[in-house]
Amino acid sequence: MTMVKTRFAPSPTGRMHVGNLRTALYSYLIAKHEGGNFMLRIEDTDQERFMEGAIDIINHTLADTGLVHDEGPDKDGGVGPYVQSERCRQGIYTKYAEKLVEQGDAYYCFCTKERLESLRRTVGGKEISAYDKHCLHLSKEEIRANLEAGKPYVIRFNMPLEGTTTFHDEIYGDITVNNDELDDLILIKSDGFPTYNFANVIDDHLMGITHVVRGNEYLSSTPKYNRIYEAFGWEIPKYIHCPLITNEEGQKLSKRSGHSSFEDLLEQGFVAEAIVNYVALLGWSPAGEQEIFSLQELIEIFDYHHINKSPAVFDMTKLKWMNGEYIKAMDDEKFYGMAEPYLKKYLTRDLDLKKIATMVKTRIEVLPDIEQQVDFLNEVPEYDAEMYVHKKSKSTKETSLKILTDVLPLLEACDDFNNDALFTILGGYAKENEYKVNTVMWPLRTAVSGKQATPAGATGIMEVLGKEESISRIRKAIEKLS
What we know:
This protein is mainly alpha-helical. It contains 20 helices and 13 strands. It has helices spanning 18-33, 54-65, 84-89, 92-103, 113-118, 140-148, 196-206, 222-232, 262-267, 272-280, 295-301, 316-329, 332-346, 353-360, 370-378, 397-412, 419-432, 437-449, 458-465, 467-481; strands at residues 5-8, 37-40, 106-109, 120-123, 126-129, 154-157, 164-169, 173-178, 186-188, 211-215, 238-242, 245-246, 312-313. The strands form six sheets. A three-stranded antiparallel beta sheet has the order 3-6-9. A two-stranded parallel sheet has the order 1-2. Strand 1 (5-8), helix 1 (18-33) and strand 2 (37-40) form a beta-alpha-beta unit.
């Protein structure tokens, strides 16, 4: 039985789109689920779109998401080079294109840009360009003369005009197209570089790729790929075309959405593991109700036959919820490492950041949420005295004023200003005066925070603020209520 081998073959053109990340993830999961190999190949034949630093982005993204490749530019598996421009320099693609010319399956095309422009026509309101096979009929002498004269050329594949081509996709089943819809695909461009489509076929075969995962926008190109495979007599890989990813409005997820790339999401305070988990569910449904999966769990249960045909909606609310679950389950030290830059950015006072991180950890969905959880630690926001009225705590403005006035000297006398000591003092005061503990804590929390919802109770907040600041805030609250 042939070992399953998949590849992720990104073009280095910028940040990694969520759709590309999903392709990488599914390719990785298919290989690992079957104990196979996951390969990285860099497709940089489109030199005009090449972006400096983009290969680093690809490597960082794969490392951050845990999608470790078994072979690639940095891990030779015996079928390299793994960068297409390097393969071009070795003449790999030209050799195979010329073999197709010899077989009569491809031909040299010397048509000028002006002539090609003249072939454009509008069909159903859409401008299309279909080559008319003009150069297919050139004699060997004409071809030789043009080549010797240095005339620019491309190499085209000779697609049949009659009949149909049927191909199988693991998700969409058998798809049949009329051959007259298949344009004569360019294999080698005038700059000597192969087209994306041709290089893909050659590399996937030579590198032993068994399963090809890509977006369903490539469904229309697949019959052309298969014609090339068949011309060489090569085995066709299994195709897995993934559904479109849309925004909440049903439009294709684009860069304008602000969250279309992995790096966008990291910058918005999402956790890499949560992003991977969520992206796995964009078009694929596991059995059962479970939604939180580690990468290892995904490897164990992933079955590409359960990928959906219909578009997947990128739901930010769902991703935020999932991210919050990952943050809650995170080790405190790891969370602090992620939260520290945000705490330093949002807090202007010198406070115990580790304690604050522990306080906010279960209260946020994304890291920037920290700001609204800790802003009161800088200064108490303006608030209405009506906030001291709270039915559940049986708190009124009158009881609040009395409690704050009573406990102020107790707090001033407290030398060990920590959560446990403060709770003991205030609990004792509540018992002695026949108050519920909540009736005592509500006005204190309001006084020191000015908020109804806080990441910790009154004593936890006072510990973080420290004795001097807590006492100062309570005095101001007494003035407000007097």
